[in-house]
Amino acid sequence: MNSLRIINKLGYGVCAVLCGFLSIISYGCQESTTPGMQVSATLDITPSPPTVGEADVVLTLTGAKGELLTGGEIEIEGNMDHAGMKPVFSKLTETAPGKYTGKLEFTMGGDWFVLVTGQLADGHQLNEKVDVPGVKSQ
Description:
Elements: H1 2-27, E1 39-46, E2 53-63, E3 73-80, E4 88-96, E5 99-106, E6 110-119, E7 125-135
Antiparallel strand pairs: 1-2, 2-5, 3-4, 3-6, 4-5, 6-7
């Protein structure tokens, strides 16, 4: 009888650990932007094509109907598409309706991607990825 109680308690423990594990891994499987919100993020980089060094970045945010999305607090994170490189960060400033500008330092030639994160004026969360292939070495 004692062996059944031990197995039963062990079963509950395994179930609890499994539920906790599934909760943790499912957290990373979230939609990129607030559900139901369609956002188009267009990233213009000067110089074009981008080269190693400081670049000017202009991000244009539009909604599903093409309306400019104003009043956001936006940050970008530049990453190379391979492991081992430190990311670079920049906070963008809205300089015109729906246009956010800043600087980004490309530290090495190659393929990059930029994560655009922040909060829009209406409270929606923004989390978009923009590929930046072929950053040139000088």
